Amino acid sequence: MELTGAEIVVSCLRDEGVKHLFGYPGGAVLNIYDEIYKQTAFKHILVRHEQAAVHAADAYARATGEVGVAIVTSGPGATNAVTGIATAYMDSIPMVVISGQVPTAAIGQDAFQEVDMVGITRPCVKHNFLVRDVHDLAATIKKAFYIAATGRPGPVVVDIPKDVTQHRCAYEYPKSVSMRSYNPTSKGHSGQIKKAAQMLLEAKRPMIYTGGGVILGNAAAQVTELVRLLGYPATSTLMGLGGYPSPDPLFLGMLGMHGTIEANMAMQHCDVLLAVGARFDDRVIGNPKHFAKEARRIIHIDVDPSSISKRVRVDVPIVGEVAQVLDEVLKLIQADKSKPDEQALKAWWAQIELWRSQDCLKYDRAASVIKPQFVIEKLYEVTQGDAYVTSDVGQHQMWAAQYYQFDKPRRWINSGGLGTMGFGLPAAMGVQLAFPEAMVACVTGEGSIQMNIQELSTCKEWNLPLKVILLNNGYLGMVRQWQEFFYEERYAESYMNSLPDFVKLAEAYGHVGMTIDKPEDVEQALRDAFGKYKDRLVFLNFLTDPRENVFPMIPAGKGLSEMILL
Amino acid sequence: MRHIISLLMENESGALSRVAGLFSARGYNIESLNVAPTEDATLSRMTIVTRGSTDVIEQITKQLNKLIDVVKVQDLTDGSHIERELMLVKVRATGDQRDEMKRLADIFRGRILDVSDRTYTIELTGTGSKLDAFLEALDPTAILETVRAGTSGIGRGDRIMKI
């Protein structure tokens, strides 16, 4: 039996096992929406802005490990989706975005709601397709899912002209994909793995540095086992948090621009560095020249060869799936009779403890105003570390990363690479839809939340009981912090003096709103939000210290040992 | 360092723009770029001449390999290879110049493809530097138009890039 292109799209999503589709209808995708209406295999979540559909699908993927799926119409629907696509691309999130396109005959005619989606998204997708023939549709969608999920994951756009959704052909969803031009490496080179195991055992001042690749590659168990087997210090990037249990003493906290002293100093002064699924980016090692001043040997495991030796020369590159490679490394180390040099390791840990004793995450706990760090600590306590935490971008994001002790992978969901304000709320929706029973907290600022606040309406429609933790300091806090440090306190456009009444706003959308302005009320408010109002969306407007800064801080372009401390 | 990077890619619409976009987005140089289908019509062969340090060239080849449509990448300058460029030059050829032009074309083993009473159109192949040398040998005022195809390259002997 022949199906229309629209029926084929919906059948492909069903056969791919998609359970949630985030989107917004429009002219070019009306045929597809008509088929969505007729089916029951998956739910469609209508957002209020296309950017939110893509962020929600992205976070759904981050939390579940499955491919997130979004659908938008042509033209403005497609361009609104671009920020979401770029966000997913920078953080290597597996996602398929279906965009409508004007009919094939109208392409290139500057038709109504026409935009060259393939051209616009080319630099921010893993791959994209324009499907010109209905006969290619099913195979293309299959390829899109395959490319999105394998190797270094990433978003794939499938642009479908309206007439293709009307044309008919026989439907068969391909069982497998074989592409001569795309064969990601999964197994690491055994000789290199041997070298790595040897080098690790010989280390006098070892350091294990893990990134988002550990989360994406489902290698948290292997990382944890390796760190504990060797007794070596471990750190994580912003994207890798939860890859190793944060409360564990072997964990030195996050490294980088707002990393701990102990993590940054150990990174700078180690003699053997194992990097797993991390890419030495500018927010992590700062200035690569400064980083290279200290001699160290580097082992780098990554599924993407182009991430290796990009910013930092590596001695032992290993291309492969991080979990598989670490399994091999673990086997070799367990079988090896030689053990790490205990004396050297003891001295190294003594040095690390000295750095750690500076207690760089201390803040004024006796303050009479609410300290933002305190809110995050209480959030951790009240949720017993078991919440999914999404965030927007800015100071609140760094405090959430520093003070919520993530001990499981896929619980910390934020836009690390692109740094997209407006990510947090739609991300929380995606997570809550994936895990209806879970505690989901969106840590945000009053700048970021307003970039996608319309999604409170989507949350109402779906009764999503997520909690918005607004650290409201009345400033675009991170901008203000940079202006204080580097622009002689000229606070250009970083103060928002016409903020809405967030309680009324939450109520207008049908949710519960609270304003909390005293430290002693913080815990109870959180307990109410996750207890009494368990089944409601609660918007907690915490009025926090407007002058608080994120410490430590490495100014842009400086090295790991050039931190500004409180 | 100058490098000649050869690649085989799926002959899909938009494949060229993926490569060109990669170079501009990441700030890599392109000195010349030349592309056409191979004997297998589903594949295109592209030759890119670029300049960069060893690190940059390593990144370029890795990034090219990462493009989904790219099947194979080879840095021809890694081993022995042959390179050729095609040039068409239209020169003014009047009076005494006609003989002089003909001789010069012969010396450079060029061929005159088209003749009018005022012009010659000369075809020349060779390495880029040979073509440059020919242009330098000409009286600059005699050059009416030049078209260069960009370098094509192939490995010597048994060095073969095929799938």
Account of the 3D structure:
The complex is a heterodimer of chains A (566) and B (163). Chain A has 566 residues and is an alpha/beta fold. In chain A, 39% of the residues lie in helices and 16% in strands. Chain A is built from 23 helices and 20 strands. Chain A has a six-stranded parallel beta sheet with strand order 3-2-4-5-7-6, with helices on both faces. In chain A, strands 11-10-9-12-13-14 form a six-stranded parallel beta sheet, sandwiched between helices. In chain A, helix 3 (50-64) runs parallel beside helix 4 (76-90), helix 3 packs across helix 18 (424-434) and helix 10 runs parallel beside helix 14 (322-335). The N and C termini of chain A lie far apart (70 Å). The relative contact order of chain A is 0.11. The mean pLDDT of chain A is 97. The two termini of chain B are 28 Å apart. In chain B, a hairpin with a 3-residue loop joins strand 6 and strand 7. Chain B has four helices and nine strands. Chain B is an alpha+beta fold. Chain B is elongated and about 55 Å long. Helices cover 28% and strands 40% of the residues of chain B. Chain A binds chain B through residues 118-119, 122-123, 126-127, 130, 147, 179-182, 304-306, 309-310, and chain B through 9-10, 13-14, 17-18, 21, 25, 55, 58-59, 62-63, 65-66, 68-71, 163.
Largest sheet: spatial strand order of chain A: 3-2-4-5-7-6
Query: Oligomeric state of the chains?
Result: heterodimer
Largest interface: A-B, 17 and 20 residues
What does the average pLDDT of chain A come to?
97
How many distinct beta strands of chain A? Answer: 20
* SS element count, helices of chain A: 23
Mean pLDDT of chain B: 95
Label the overall shape of chain A.
Answer: globular
SS content category of chain B: alpha+beta
Number of strands of chain B: 9
Our count of helices of chain B gives 4
Radius of gyration of chain B, whole Å: 19 Å
Spatial gap, N to C terminus of chain B: 28 Å
Residue share in helix of chain B: 25-40%
